[in-house]
Amino acid sequence: SDLDVLVGRFGDRPIFLGRAIQNYLNTSAECLLYLARELAANETPSIVVLQSLLRPVLMASGRVVFILGSTDRKQQFTNASIVMRQEGDSYLRALRAFSGFEHLRGFVAPSEVMAEVEAAVEKLRQGAPKRGEGQVLDEMAEFIAQEVGAREQGRVMSDSVTHAWHTFSGGAHGYVWPDNVPGDFIATFGVVVPVAHWAFDIAVTRTHV
Known about the structure:
76% helix
């Protein structure tokens, strides 16, 4: 399948691509299922809780669509390399932060592990351009726009994803500024859920093609 071929082009260091994609899908499903249970029980979570649940759905599902959306295997590899670089950079930043611990030594990676991760991340950096999460989500939205074949609808989708990304991120960081930004949670919810649907649909399709 397309997915098997793609995963086979990457090693398991610093991150195994197959496990990453599985985690992105699991993250999306678990957050949405938890939210569904809360709403079914007539609970009314605060906006900040709702945003905190939907932010990882948007990010994780967006990565899957970004990686697997194209039917061009070369493009799939390029996009997967970008996401794997994001994973590697984040992992390496954490390991380096932990390396200075004096008391919680169990969190400090052995020198050979650190060297292995550094080498793997450097290889990813050489093979993939650096992209921020916002850029990946914007390209994901553009892909969906092309698939639906409606440029105007696609622009609305892209703008909605950008709005959700920034307001969700602001809320997740505990900032107050999202309260000052116009927006409708139901409309935003109606953007995030279809992205998750696309992610699962594409993952299944690429598994069988």
